[in-house]
Specification:
The complex is a heterodimer of chains A (181) and B (147).
Chain A (H helix, E strand, L loop, with lengths): L1 H11 L3 H23 L2 H17 L10 H22 L5 H4 L9 H4 L7 H8 L3 H11 L5 H8 L3 H20 L5
Helix pairs in contact in A: 1-2, 2-3, 2-4, 2-8, 3-4, 8-10, 9-10
Chain B lengths: L2 H10 L7 H17 L12 H26 L1 H10 L5 H16 L3 H15 L9 H13 L1
The chains are: A mainly alpha (181), B mainly alpha (147).
Chain lengths: 181, 147
């Protein structure tokens, strides 16, 4: 936390080393988050790239109120959601990223982005509606509270909790299902 | 184990490494920005006028206080002497004797010194053991100047 505050202080004074350090510290975490949301690594890296380019451009006027980790996770989640919305508006272009994947239809490459051991989890997450997937990933991977997720998605806490419950039930069913190979 | 804990553990196991392509893109962006601007670690100028005014006021106040503190330090020995030898502990008493000391050094006439002494006496009348005459005071001040 203290290191992050110091890095932000240096970053606002346009110290490039501070920015490099922020990137190196959080790049893997953010790429994993984006890939879990979008079920594809290339698009996930594009999302992280956009977030860091925006961050670089805000040097000198960046104000951080909470933790840097949460802030970056929120930025990546927002960017991923926007990409997902853009894809649903233009069906046929990378549709599989936007819509829940039917059982067994995820390509082998994408099913194994987190490794063979987590293949089942990857496929199950990809089969959830995006909103439910996002709540579950942000809750369990980023340890975000429901209130923060609600603010980010611009929904009520009850709606977020409902998405979480339904998503979790479906995920549990999918993970216990013998259909997924 | 609760199924939710299982899912939590599974999701926390998710781990990807950023590719070297992404690293190159980000680092090249950082290089572009750093080439166009210079780091400014030491100077922070507040943006709002109120903050600038407050910062200036603070600097001026600090400089003023530092000046007084330095000046006062050089008189500290004299003050200590006056406080110990004349048993003066009140700031008013000390200040009165300091003003008398200055008047003495500036070579003011006896009338001016008498007036200063009356003022000092009024302020410290309840504290002084005895009222010092001009001669006694001059002797005390001469002792003080030798320090």
């Amino acid at each position: 936390m203290l290191e992050d505050k110091l890095l932000i202080w240096k970053f606002n004074r346009r110290d490039p080393q501070a920015l490099r350090r922020i990137y190196e510290k959080y790049k893997d975490y953010l790429v994993t988050l984006a890939a879990a949301l979008l079920s594809e690594k290339t698009v996930a890296e594009d999302s992280v790239h956009d977030v860091f380019v925006s961050l670089i451009r805000s040097a000198g006027k960046f104000r951080l109120t909470g933790s840097l980790r949460s802030y970056l996770a929120t930025c990546v989640a927002n960017n991923a959601r926007n990409r997902n919305k853009a894809l649903t508006r233009h069906p046929g272009v990378g549709l599989e990223v936007a819509e829940p994947i039917a059982s067994g239809s995820l390509s082998p490459d994408r099913a194994a982005i987190f490794g063979e051991k987590l293949r089942k989890v990857t496929i199950s997450l990809a089969q959830l509606p995006y909103d439910q997937r996002e709540v579950i990933i942000l809750r369990h991977y980023s340890n975000m509270k429901f209130k923060a997720i609600a603010e980010m998605q611009n929904e009520s806490i009850n709606t977020i909790q409902g998405r979480y419950r339904y998503g979790l039930d479906k995920l549990r069913t999918l993970l216990n299902s013998e259909v997924i190979k | 184990m609760r199924p939710q804990n299982n899912i939590d553990k599974l999701i926390k196991k998710l781990d990807l490494k950023a590719s070297t392509d992404l690293d190159k893109k980000i680092h090249s962006q950082i290089d572009k920005i750093s080439a166009s601007t210079k780091p400014n670690l030491w100077i922070t100028l507040p943006k709002s006028k109120i903050m600038r005014f407050a910062a200036m006021t603070a600097v001026v106040a600090l400089a003023f206080y530092s000046g007084i503190a330095y000046k006062d330090r050089s008189h500290q020995k004299q003050l200590d002497y006056l406080a110990t030898e004349l048993n003066l502990k009140s700031p008013a008493e000390l200040m009165s004797y300091i003003s008398l000391s200055r008047a003495f050094r500036q070579g003011d006439d006896m009338e001016a010194l008498e007036k200063q002494l009356e003022v000092a006496d009024k302020k410290a009348s309840s504290r002084l053991k005895e009222r010092l005459t001009i001669d006694q005071l001059i002797c005390e001040l001469e002792e003080c100047d030798k320090i």
